[in-house]
């Protein structure tokens, strides 16, 4: 139940790719359901034990001092709980929360309008903070450090900077690409945390809690089956749970067992490791058409009928994380685990560790 609800929306965003049941970005249905499933405090929040412990200390200390909490930076893949934690921070501090995103702030004036309307102690959640415009980013430096912004009135030699004092507030920034944040911005956060992917046992707890809230009867082995296919991401686990619930209601007696979960996810083409149609298409092309590689990314994308960016940004990260695909200077190669997963036997040149020379260009 720990997942984000703001997806990239501008042209420079990573491509969304085809609609995917195992995609980690939120869609309209996810956003509506997540509102009901989100934990309301740190005790309800499942997983991220170290982050929860550290954040609890930060918030309790701030409350004891009667001060606003330090600015918080949360980084990690989509769907791991950054938006949820920002709402919990506001709830723990007894403060309202304002939610916006980096792509929505393209001018310094956009940010100034938001900052000038904040109440004392309010939490400002800024998703995809690395995608703010540079002028707005520079304005944010002063706002975070001195609770002040200079509003420029007029243009050219006659322009005048009017200082605007701001009430103390807490900025919670979230990013999926922490390396793109400039050091001056990172340094102004008092607390930074990296969100890790979830272990299957943690996802089972997520699924059991969500099943209770959705009034779905699920057996432990059914929850384990869904958790094993959820790619370490709570948002995906909840999405799969809803689809398995539908299958169980239509095809069975409404109770989710391991067998029912397996049958349902088979219908939705999510295999035992969480790979979907696109993931398997990439692996199948790599193995069957290019003998396991190395092959250039553009060539591989053409082979599966997708854009290069879709393969690189949507399919590859999970395949690499699962140890099924590797990136090399000569191109993409399949690992022994990929051959085993698709029940295929590598050609002779693969037996010694993929010794084929690069034959397929980028």
TrEMBL record:
Catalytic activity: ATP + H2O = ADP + phosphate + H(+)
Residues that, per the record, bind ATP: 37-38, 79, 82-84, 145-147, 188, 198, 235
Residues annotated for DNA binding in this entry: 308, 327, 332
Pfam families named in the record: AAA_lid_4 (PF17864), RuvB_N (PF05496), WHD_RuvB (PF05491)
InterPro entries for this protein: AAA+_ATPase, AAA_lid_4, DNA_helicase_Holl-junc_RuvB, P-loop_NTPase, RuvB-like_N, RuvB_wg_C, WH-like_DNA-bd_sf, WH_DNA-bd_sf
Compartments where located: Cytoplasm
Region Disordered: start-end pairs: 1-26
Positions with a binding annotation for Mg(2+): 83
Residues in AAA+ ATPase domain copies: 68-201
Gene3D superfamilies: 1.10.8.60, P-loop containing nucleotide triphosphate hydrolases, Winged helix-like DNA-binding domain superfamily/Winged helix DNA-binding domain
CDD domains: AAA (cd00009)
EC number(s) from the headed UniProt entry: 3.6.4.-
UniProt remark on domains: Has 3 domains, the large (RuvB-L) and small ATPase (RuvB-S) domains and the C-terminal head (RuvB-H) domain. The head domain binds DNA, while the ATPase domains jointly bind ATP, ADP or are empty depending on the state of the subunit in the translocation cycle. During a single DNA translocation step the structure of each domain remains the same, but their relative positions change.
Similarity comment text for this entry: Belongs to the RuvB family.
Protein name listed in UniProt: Holliday junction branch migration complex subunit RuvB
Organism: Streptomyces nigrescens
């Amino acid at each position: 139940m720990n997942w984000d609800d703001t997806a990239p929306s501008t042209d420079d965003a990573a491509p969304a790719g085809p609609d995917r049941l195992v995609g980690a970005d939120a869609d309209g249905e996810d956003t509506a359901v997540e509102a009901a499933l989100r934990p309301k405090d740190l005790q309800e929040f499942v997983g991220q034990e170290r982050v929860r412990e550290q954040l609890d200390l930060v918030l309790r200390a701030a409350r004891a001092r009667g001060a606003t909490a330090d600015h918080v930076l949360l980084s990690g893949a989509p769907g791991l709980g950054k938006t949820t934690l920002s709402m919990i921070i506001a709830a723990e501090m007894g403060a309202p929360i304002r939610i916006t995103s980096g792509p929505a702030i393209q001018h310094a004036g956009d940010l100034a309008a938001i900052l000038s309307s904040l109440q004392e102690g309010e939490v400002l959640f800024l998703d995809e903070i690395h995608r703010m415009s540079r002028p707005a980013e520079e304005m944010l430096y002063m706002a975070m450090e001195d609770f002040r912004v200079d509003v420029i009135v007029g243009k050219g030699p006659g322009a005048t900077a009017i200082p605007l004092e701001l009430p103390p507030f807490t900025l919670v920034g979230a990013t999926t690409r922490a390396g793109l944040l400039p050091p001056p911005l990172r340094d102004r956060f008092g607390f930074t945390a990296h969100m890790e992917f979830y272990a299957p046992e943690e996802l089972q707890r997520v699924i059991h809690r969500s099943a209770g809230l959705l009034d779905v009867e699920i057996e432990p082995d059914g929850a384990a089956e869904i958790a094993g296919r959820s790619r370490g991401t709570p948002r995906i686990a909840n999405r799969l749970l809803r689809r398995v619930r539908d299958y169980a209601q239509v095809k069975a007696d409404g109770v989710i067992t391991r067998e029912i979960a397996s049958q349902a996810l088979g219908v939705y083409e999510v295999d035992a490791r969480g790979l979907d149609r696109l993931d398997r298409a990439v692996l199948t092309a790599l193995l069957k058409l290019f003998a396991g590689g190395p092959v250039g990314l553009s060539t591989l994308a053409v082979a599966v009928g997708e854009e290069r960016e879709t393969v690189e940004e949507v399919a590859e990260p999970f395949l690499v994380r699962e140890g099924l695909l590797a990136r090399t200077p000569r191109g993409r190669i399949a690992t022994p685990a990929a051959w085993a997963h698709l029940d295929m036997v590598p050609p002779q040149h693969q037996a010694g560790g993929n010794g084929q020379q690069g034959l397929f260009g980028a």
